[in-house]
Design a protein that fits this description.
It comes from Aedes aegypti (Yellowfever mosquito). This is N-acetyltransferase domain-containing protein. One of its GO terms (molecular function) is N-acetyltransferase activity. The structure is a single chain. By secondary structure, the chain is an alpha+beta fold. The protein has a single domain, classed as Aminopeptidase (3-Layer(aba) Sandwich). About 35% of the residues lie in helices and about 25% in strands. It contains 10 helices and 8 strands. Helix 4 crosses helix 5 and helix 7 packs across helix 9.
Length: about 240
């Protein structure tokens, strides 16, 4: 069943406000908002994600996704499919329309049967890795839900990193889920930075595997330079 945003929920809606350091050297706190990504900013968000997430995220970086023309076309196409669901979040510094961070979100259903038909070996391997870890986490049975809020990328502009923006984007999922009637949000967090942000936002660990162990599961799941690090599937129940 295709998930649809409830018609009674305003769009775009601000879900979360917080204070963090601005861009001034004096470290003065400024207000930021996390809101629905407006339709007129879809292309801007895709450019942001293509420039930062595709290059910096652990799996993408290890496999060189940003250098794979076909893989990049396919990941952009996936984002374009997800964005019209009107679940994705964007962070702005109040008084500015420059994108601070983006979290591309969608609803995963227990009854999803569609498989992505991918031509890129790199992107296909990354998706297979995430699917394997998701299957091991077994969140549908663990939490007794039929659907949950999932993600396909979270990225903060390098200029704004070190201010806790990723944590606040993750915290914004709580009011978002409540507004959408969702009881759980779960995501595969592939690196120590995103895992730390998730812990601060209240996520709990469902499954943890080192990249060295992951490479033994499937010869495709070799991620150079990451052997000692781990990949975690983490969840946050929405009360």
């Amino acid at each position: 069943m295709v998930w649809k945003r409830p018609a009674e929920v305003p769009y775009p809606k601000v879900w979360h406000r917080f204070q963090a350091k601005g861009l001034q050297e004096d470290g003065q706190l400024e207000w930021y908002t996390v809101q629905d990504l407006p339709e007129d900013r879809f292309e801007d968000a895709i450019r942001h994600m293509s420039e930062h997430f595709a290059r910096d995220e652990q799996l993408n970086k290890a496999k060189g996704l940003d250098q794979d023309v076909i893989g990049m076309e396919e990941v952009v196409q996936l984002w374009k499919i997800m964005l019209p669901e009107r679940l994705s979040l964007v962070c702005f510094r109040e008084g500015s329309d420059a994108i601070v961070g983006v979290n591309i979100l969608g609803v995963a259903s227990k009854y999803d049967k569609d498989e992505l038909k991918l031509k890129s070996d790199i992107f296909r391997t990354i998706i297979a890795t995430i699917e394997y870890i998701s299957h091991q986490a077994n969140v549908f049975e663990r939490y007794g839900v039929d659907q949950y809020l999932n993600a396909m990328g979270l990225s903060v502009d390098p200029v704004y990193r070190g201010r806790g923006i990723a944590t606040e984007l993750l915290r914004a999922r709580v009011p978002l889920c409540k507004g959408m009637g969702l009881k759980l949000t779960s995501t595969c967090f592939t690196g120590p930075g995103s895992q730390a942000a998730a812990r601060k936002a209240g996520f709990e660990e469902n499954f943890n595997i080192t990249y060295a162990e992951l490479a033994k599961v499937d010869p495709r799941f070799v991620y150079p330079g990451l052997d000692e690090k781990s990949c975690k599937y983490m969840s946050l129940k929405i009360d």
